[in-house]
Amino acid sequence: MADHKQLTLWEEMQNKGYSRRDFLKFCAWMGAFIGVESTGVASVVRAMETKKRPAVIWLHLQECTCCSESFIRSSHPIVADIILDNISLDYTETLQAAAGHQAEAAMKKSMKDNWGEYILLVEGSVPTGDDGVYCCIGGQTAEARLKEAAEGAKAVIAWGNCASNGCVQAANPNPTTATPIHKIISGKPLIKVPGCPPIGEVMAGIIVHILAFGTIPQLDGQGRPMAFYGRRVHDTCYRRPNYDAGLFVEEFDDENAKKGYCLYKVGCRGPVTYNACAVTKWNGGTSFPIQAGHGCLGCSEANFWDHGPFYQHLASFPGFGIETTADTIGLGLGVGAAVGIAAHAVITNIRKKDEINEHIETSAVPDRDQEGD
Amino acid sequence: MRKKEIALFRVYVWERPVRIYHWLNALCIVVLCITGYLIGNPIVLQHGGNDASMLYFFGWIRFIHFAAAYVFLINFIVRIYWGFVGNQYSDWKNYFPYSKKHFQNMWDVLMVDILMIKKKDIETAGHNAVANFTYFLTFLAFLLSVVTGFGMYSAMSDNWFSSLFHWVIPFFGGDLILRMIHHVTMWFFVVFTIFHVYLVFYHDYVDGSGVLSSMAGGWKFVTKDKFLRKNQKKPEPAKK
Fold this sequence. Notes:
The complex is a heterodimer.
Chain A: H1 9-16, H2 20-34, H3 41-50, E1 56-60, H4 66-72, H5 77-86, E2 89-92, H6 100-113, E3 118-123, E4 126-127, E5 136-137, E6 140-141, H7 142-151, E7 153-159, H8 160-165, E8 178-179, E9 190-193, H9 200-213, H10 226-229, H11 233-236, H12 240-245, H13 255-258, H14 277-280, H15 326-351, H16 353-361
Parallel strand pairs in A: 1-2, 1-3, 3-7, 7-9
Antiparallel strand pairs in A: 4-8, 5-6
Helix pairs in contact in A: 1-5, 2-3, 2-9, 3-9, 4-9
Chain B: E1 8-12, H1 16-40, H2 57-85, H3 100-114, H4 129-154, H5 168-172, H6 175-207, H7 211-217, E2 219-223, H8 224-233
Antiparallel strand pairs in B: 1-2
Helix pairs in contact in B: 1-2, 1-6, 2-4, 4-6
């Protein structure tokens, strides 16, 4: 791997047989994804031509590898060919050729050679329960491994909802005490790329941004790149006009579902989910859940597993049975209040009878010239 | 037939800004609850047939909700301001039980008005301590409602004011939680309104102090003793 490190991405692409035209198209395409204006594409091109590929270490902790799967299916072939094959991905359990001690040695060497320079990509959460026994790699707990690798990283990217928020492993009752990585490491620039999985193009776009500009992209209040997580799925959804019009699907087999109306009432999480699904879509821009007729599950939001049921607009109220919404409880309280005051009113007439009669008795006799007020 | 006649004094309790605040607030809460409930659980306009470009029904519901939210908030701010410059009955300090007198009054209200197991004359010209404390809780609910509401709104608005609430979503940990809390505050207002309206009728009926109409004209009626006692403590009577 060492000899590869001298090449720039452009040189690498030439070796792979890509033409200049392909290269420029790739840069323009990526530039559009990461949200640079057209004049900024030149800086993407220049960066690809001149900058050496950064060393990358990709840790797989408590996860299902769907993030990796999403990434290698990014629609542009160059992403898979160049970014993944040749990005100096010095260590990634799923795709590396090396195994066992060899792999460990490769990781250690890469960390040493690029100390303070490499980018750490983390997929999966960190189980901290029972001294971390639930996820051990190379004789180390996930937590120790992450801390060690993060120490020398230039920046850390949390791939997917596991690394960003804990996802399904952290869902109630969270048996392994799965913890998102921002609670484990500190003092490093951290980019959260939530989603289960995140969109492949989004993942590629973030790497290209770091490569092209040498900085981490602009992040929102929760540490997610604004370019991809700045808007709700709802705000970019092609079914949005139906929402504004008041045209809703009520059952998945009703007439409105056939007409492609808004899925808000059948629990679509689009209005509470920040992601680029409705813009970038999936599988090379083929479709996304709502286009396929199913509501968004909110997979890029924290604790989305615990906010079920998925086919209900309001999540069930914590502490009560499933499918007990705030409305059920509110209505119960309202009825309780009404019953309570009715009882109080009856008792008032009994207990306060004397008092009220006394008021009546002691009231003044109205004169003709005094208007009652 | 009549044992004795009792003279009642007319006290100007609720000044005009307080009354305007009350009714504007009531209107806002009704509008916000209805539109808010519809936002949470929209009625389905029709089953097929129409094209989305012909309609903006849900858009209007949401617009009314957001517009009413602004009115509600500004009204609330004006009321807080009035708590510092208004008369003794609207003073902000009333809303926190801090002295023994307040707690004594709370206890009396519990025994006399709520459980009705004790008889005592505890009529107050303004709010009693329990009412004041309940209003303090409603102010907290207003605050929670405003913060969660504008927090959700900030995601869909570039307005400078709503952008002041960008911190809310990360603070609460996501829009869905925010939506839930906001929804629960609606039910708080519904339950509050039930009790509030009932108790006004109750006091009007039992005390005969004109509390029901006091929010229209501002006047309440108290016995001479109470009027004098009040005026001894505070040299100036209720401002007019």
